Amino acid sequence: MKILYLETSSKNCSVAISDNEKLLCLCEETSENYKQSESLHTFVEWALEGAELSLKEIQAISLGKGPGSYTGLRIGAASAKGFCYGLKIPLIAVNSLESMIEPFLGQNYDYIIPLIDARRMEVYTAIYDGNTGEEKIETEAKILDYTTFQEYRDKKIIFVGDGAKKAQEVLQLPNADFNENIFPSSKYLIKKTLEKINKKEFEDVAYFEPFYLKDFQGVKKKKSEE
């Protein structure tokens, strides 16, 4: 089964194509400027070219559904829906946090804790078993302070994601490792996507919304003085 993967929830704009579990091509770039709007469809074209496939040969779309950047998630969801409607193929959605833990499974960590940077000292996070990848604590928004995650003080854990840097500054956890250079990636959506396909866990394309986790908080412009 030829599957196109889109992951736009972070600074990493990421597109991949697989034939079942075999990765055929990966195109991704991490940018501080969030280039999803200008790069996503170019990356899709490059990935199709690299995989030597045409768009009409794609049989399913998998999307990293968030949490993460509100604008990035909107762009990814709109593109995924467009492909699904146009090609009449199913949509699979995977929690973006799950794509961050796969490189660290089986590395002697009791728990893997992804941290996506949100506002100020807030992060989007969940807790996963370090061997099986099983979700232990579901996705939530959490404020970081010196008391956060203290229940894991005696465990070997790793914090991954762009929220790990500010976590390292405040968390007092002597057995913890921190890796801030990890972003959600489409290449790590493959395993979970295939599991969902086998279970026929498809999204309703018409009603699907990304996993924003929190309402969008825009900045109001001040009214100009008359």
Automatic annotation (TrEMBL):
- Gene3D superfamilies named among the record's database cross-references: 3.30.420.40
Record's GO cellular component terms: cytosol
Which InterPro entries does the record cross-reference, listed alphabetically? ATPase_NBD (IPR043129), Gcp-like_dom (IPR000905), T6A_TsaB (IPR022496)
Q: Name one GO biological process term.
A: tRNA threonylcarbamoyladenosine modification
Q: Which residues form the Gcp-like domain?
A: 37-182
Q: What CDD domains does the record tag this protein with?
A: ASKHA_NBD_TsaB
Task: Tell me the leader sequence span.
Answer: none
Pfam families registered for this protein in UniProt: TsaD
Q: Which PANTHER family match?
A: TRNA N6-ADENOSINE THREONYLCARBAMOYLTRANSFERASE (PTHR11735), TRNA THREONYLCARBAMOYLADENOSINE BIOSYNTHESIS PROTEIN TSAB (PTHR11735:SF11)
Q: State the protein's name.
A: tRNA threonylcarbamoyladenosine biosynthesis protein TsaB
The gene from which this protein is expressed is tsaB
